[in-house]
Each structure stands twice: as C-alpha cells, then as structure tokens.
Amino acid sequence: MAELKKENEQEHSSASGEKLYLKGITKTFNSGTVNEKVALDDLSLRLNDGDFCTVIGGNGAGKSTMLNAISGVWPVDKGAIIIDGEDISRLPEYKRSHFLGRVFQDPRMGTAPDMEIIENLAIAARRGYHRTFRWGVKSSEKKLYREMLAEFDLGLEDRLTTKVGLLSGGQRQAITLLMATLQKPKLLLLDEHTAALDPKTAAKVLELSDKIISEHKLTAIMVTHNMHDAIRHGNKLIMMNKGKVIFEISGEEKRKLHKADLLEKFSKQSGEELANDRMLLSE
Questions:
Q1: pLDDT tens digits for 125-149?
Q2: ∠ Cα 192 25 80 (to 5°)
Q3: CA 20 to 30 Å from 42, out of 24, 97, 120, 134?
C-alpha cells in the first residue's frame, strides 16, 4: 500500500517542467442509448512548461471536446486532468478558471459587449480577487492597458471607452486574447480562435497569439482546422481521430513538416482518408 501511494504521489506531482498531464481521459455521451458517442477514448497527453501545442483532426475527432474536458464544461468518465501537479478532474468549471485562459471561435464570447474596453480588461485583471464597493480603474492601469493595446497595432489604445460590442470581430478577438492572458494562466486554450475571421485578420490575431505566448512563456493548446497554421505555429503538434491522439511531433521534425506529410500520416495512422473540406482546402 505504501509503495502504491508513493507511486500515485509521484504521478500526480509535477514532473520536471511538466505543465499538463491528461492521463487516460474518457468521455462518452448518451451512454447506453442508440446515440452513444465515445468522444474521448483513453486520451493521454503531456505538455511541458512553455509548450505551444497545435491540435488538428477531422470533424468529431475530439479536439474541442478535449478542451471542454480540461475546462470542466462537464466531468470526464474516467482518467485524470493534472495541471502543475494538481489533479483538477473533480473541480467545477468556475474553480478551474483560476488555472486557465480560453479564447473561443466566436469573437462575441469572452467579453461583455455593453461594457467599455477598459472595463472588460479591468474585470479580467481582477478575476479571482475579492471585490469591494471601491471599483475603479487606476491611472496606472489605464497606462498599462493602453501600452498593451498599442502593441496590437489595431488602434484600440485610443478607444478605451468604446463599448466592445461596437468593435470588429478581429478587434474583439484581440481584446478577448488579452483578457485571457492578463493573469498569465497556467494553461491557455485557443479553440479555433481565428476560424470566424477573414484571412488577413486571422493572420494578425495569430501573430498576436505567438507574441503573447512567447513573451509570457505561456503553455498553450491551439485547436485548428488549418494545416498550414498547425505546422507554422507552436513547437508541438498532435493529430486526433476518434477521441485519440494518433500522431505527435515536435521540435525540428515539426518545423520540417508539410501539408502532404500530415495527410499521409493521417491515412497511415487512422487507416482511412481524411474527408474534411476545411482541412483539405486550408492554406
């Protein structure tokens, strides 16, 4: 018993530089019915501190389902989700927000449209702190937000009092990205966060994502349908199919990848052809 306890403690402790450990997580929807769907099938993944992992796969592969599992949208059936050595598998969604930052595909999510840019940023900066009746934004905060927004090169630094609902999709997604990273989360989740943007704006938001992740040394997971983006961004790439990781590559090997390589790997590892127009047509 003592040896087993010691082994479990070692597994759940943060390994040297390990930031995320998904240990055999499984999730089945509508279990026991004709609509039963195994969304995650004994999925395991390890990310070290500072890893930027891109995730690619066809529809129904389990990409966004994995992010929802990490975020606590619903509990997993079995397995463990460990961040920085702490098992958060049983924590409710609101408590996991202290560990995570997340940006969704829809630019309208993650912000309060009827509040000003500066108010949205202030709320994000105060997340998790005790609130009092003295709510306000200090001049030092205004200066900091202005400097941060200026780096986006979108003219937002001069629109601090503009309501977020009046911004374009790209501007709003940039604000959401900044809000998600103001407190330097242990793990940043990017859920197809450029899919709803035009190509030029998407490229700008991806550039900002790279910059923020690099400067703050964040650990991040980016789900995307775009093979080019999956190869170009991050230091690690995983391909998913039917709730499992079927291919994983990192470092110099990843940098040498081409779109044709990914298509070949998918066919080889899954035993089927990739039938996803968004991925096949992505450049």
A1: 887 655 544 457 788 889 999 999 9
A2: 110
A3: 97
